């Protein structure tokens, strides 16, 4: 084999090497995007569970409210609970739609960053509403649930009513905060970090 | 932005760095080390690059000198940390030597058996650099380059004559 042939084989190799390094880069990008998608699966799964439970609960509360419409003390909490749960369900639906609309593999990183930021804004708004609405939910849901589930009028037992509200708040608010921290804040932070790294990597 | 410019330059020339790392280290762990060391040296010198030499010449000079030092086990810079993300190029575990291309495999085997300076010379020769540029990159005279390359070519020709 002549040296010139060897040099030309080397030049061919160099060309193929450049192509393969580009492919390798693309592969690394895909792997990073896969990581991003995995992170965002946690809030998506939680929202799917939330919407399912929310819809069932909403239907139950609505039917109970209709059943006791003639008594204002149950009708009013029934309506308030239904409105709160309906807003929760709507927020979950909007978040699911935003998450499902994210195209992790084919959209540019800037677009992905925008989508995550849009989701984050929506999440922050609904988080605020959810946290503020928990006390109202506790006060309104307990009477309608008591009467619908056990035919029990909680208004006749004010101490029990207060205890039930306190228990619901003690369990509900920290539980909800734990979910926000671990299923949303942490995951969104990781995702933003991955995307920032990718964005720096792709900047030419 | 200096960092962005640097990343762009490195990505443009990553095949060159890959070939140097691959020629000087057969082991992927060492290759990763050498790759980081080269990036560190390039980053440290980047602000001093004045554009008088070609960009590829500048990269060759720094990368090859780093590889030669690395090969000689000169570890005085090893503990320094690079303040940019070294994942800007990530081919430490990436190998591309086409199996079907026996010549390239043999060529790498041939390069592996050369001393550190000859490795640099053959790489620069194969990458079609002029003797003048090779001399400038390695800091030796053009005559010295010509003599050494002619010797390497002779051995190379002998090894590949039967292929």
Written overview of the protein:
The complex is a heterodimer of chains A (204) and B (163). With 204 residues, chain A is mainly alpha-helical. Chain A has one domain (40-202). Chain A is 89% helix and 0% strand. Chain A contains four helices and no strands. In chain A, helix 2 (72-101) runs antiparallel to helix 3 (109-150) and helix 3 (109-150) runs antiparallel to helix 4 (158-202). The radius of gyration of chain A is 26 Å and the shape is rod-shaped. The model of chain A has no long low-confidence stretch (mean pLDDT 91). By secondary structure, chain B is mostly helical. Chain B has two domains: 1-96, Rna Polymerase Sigma Factor, Chain: A, CATH 1.10.1740; 98-163, Orthogonal Bundle (Arc Repressor Mutant, subunit A), CATH 1.10.10. In chain B, helix 2 (14-24) packs across helix 3 (28-46), helix 2 runs antiparallel to helix 6 (116-126) and helix 4 (55-71) packs across helix 7 (131-138). The chains are: A mainly alpha (204), B mainly alpha (163). At the A-B interface, helix 1 and helix 4 of A face helix 1, helix 2, helix 5 and helix 8 of B.
Kindly identify the CATH topology of the largest domain in chain B: Rna Polymerase Sigma Factor, Chain: A
CA-based gyration radius of chain B: 16 Å
What is the number of E strands of chain A? Answer: 0
Helices and strands of chain B, in N-to-C order? HHHHHHHH
| Rough outline of chain B | globular
Q: How does CATH name the architecture of the largest domain in chain B?
A: Orthogonal Bundle
| SS-based class of chain A | mainly alpha
- Uncertain runs of chain A are none
Secondary-structure content class of chain B: mainly alpha
Largest sheet of chain A: none
Oligomeric state, counting identical vs distinct chains: heterodimer
Q: Count of helical segments of chain A?
A: 4
């Amino acid at each position: 084999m002549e040296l010139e042939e060897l040099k030309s084989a080397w030049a061919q190799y160099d060309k193929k090497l450049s192509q393969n390094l580009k492919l390798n880069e693309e592969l690394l990008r895909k792997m990073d995007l896969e990581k991003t998608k995995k992170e965002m699966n946690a809030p998506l799964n939680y929202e799917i569970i939330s919407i399912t439970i929310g819809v069932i609960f909403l239907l139950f509360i609505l039917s109970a409210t209709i059943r006791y419409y003639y008594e204002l003390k149950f009708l009013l909490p029934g309506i308030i609970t239904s409105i709160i749960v309906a807003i929760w369900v709507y927020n979950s639906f909007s978040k699911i739609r935003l998450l499902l609309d994210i195209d992790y593999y084919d959209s540019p990183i800037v677009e992905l960053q925008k989508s995550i930021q849009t989701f984050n804004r929506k999440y922050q708004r609904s988080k605020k509403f959810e946290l503020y609405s928990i006390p109202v939910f506790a006060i309104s849901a307990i009477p309608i649930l008591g009467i619908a589930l056990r035919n029990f009028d909680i208004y006749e037992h004010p101490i029990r009513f207060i205890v039930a509200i306190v228990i619901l708040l003690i369990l509900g608010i920290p539980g909800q905060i734990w979910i926000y921290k671990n299923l949303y804040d942490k995951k969104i932070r990781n995702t933003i970090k991955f995307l920032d790294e990718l964005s720096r990597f792709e900047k030419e | 932005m200096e960092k962005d410019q640097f990343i762009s330059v490195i990505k443009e020339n990553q095949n060159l760095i890959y070939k140097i790392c691959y020629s000087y280290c057969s082991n992927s762990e060492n290759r990763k080390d050498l790759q980081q060391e080269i990036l560190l040296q390039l980053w440290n010198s980047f602000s001093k690059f004045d554009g008088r030499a070609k960009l590829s010449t500048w990269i060759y000079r720094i990368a090859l000198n780093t590889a030669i030092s690395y090969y000689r086990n000169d570890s005085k810079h090893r503990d320094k940390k690079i303040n940019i993300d070294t994942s800007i190029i990530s081919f430490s575990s990436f190998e591309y030597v086409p199996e079907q291309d026996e010549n390239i495999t043999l060529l790498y085997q041939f390069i592996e058996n050369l001393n550190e300076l000859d490795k640099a010379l053959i790489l620069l020769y194969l990458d079609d650099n002029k003797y003048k540029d090779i001399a400038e990159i390695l800091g030796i005279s053009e005559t010295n380059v010509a003599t050494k390359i002619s010797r390497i070519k002779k051995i190379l020709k002998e090894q590949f004559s039967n292929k």
